[in-house]
């Protein structure tokens, strides 16, 4: 009777929401094994076939969730090479086993060895090599292929990364500026996994923007949800920080942070996670400028935001970053109520990315020119001496 009641209750038990059951995956652990080499044939000097390799191939428009569903066992074992025989003195090699993974994946073994990164479509990385076939030097015995677990660690590749505390208006901005449809509500943590939006322009130019779950103080210490998504910021070209002009308070047990303190704490979290992030180009949006008293607050904090290093001096060292971001622009906006603000930000983002692309191109040309000059210099030094 008790067992029957339990079964009936299980049927009516509330299931987790769909976005939690089938959510975004940014890491996946798989087992890979190269094929074993085939045995040789000592009597006739036959050589066994080499085992197949396991190879990851980068593809656009695929997710780690799809990779998992395509092979729920998470085991990738390549075929072995064929043994040498009277009819085949040279054993046939085993075929390579290839499987598709998303662009932006880093492949790491359990021992921390980095096998490679896949940043372009159709790039390949060998995860496990097949064993050599049997031949005279190994006693005609085929060698086993490499076998080990591999972690597929995905870092989203986007032009722009949105960074901010919960409820600052990141998802509202993403929805207004692109065709993305993130969840929006009047409470924190509406974004529980990254959203990618595409900014489209009349000349068909497209720019990608990633909205990451909101950070909280201590995110670099694994507090909250944002810490596990901070890695996605590393591959963006531009950081777009968005803060509420009225400040932020996570809950009553947390202190209320002003707009300036919010900027300071966000920079501190980025610095504690990876100080290299502070070298990225960045823009600051002061959001919710449609609220009462927002203009007076902005006029009060505007000059301080332009000189962050001096503004942070009065704060204790535990919350004050050692370095700071250098914002290309500081723009007051209302992402919800003023479409003209969103359009201005959209065009400004494009202009900044275009300037960054030009600077990058100039840097490459300079490096190529220096390399060419060095080659010419080395060639002169190596010219034969006439007697």
Automatic annotation (TrEMBL):
Q: Which residues form a coiled coil?
A: none
GO MF term (any one): GTPase activity
What biological processes does GO assign it? Answer: ribosome biogenesis
Domain Obg intervals? 22-157
Ranges where the OBG-type G domain occurs: 158-354
The Gene Ontology CC terms held by the record are:
mitochondrion; nucleolus
- The protein's name: OBG-type G domain-containing protein
Organism listed in the record: Callosobruchus maculatus
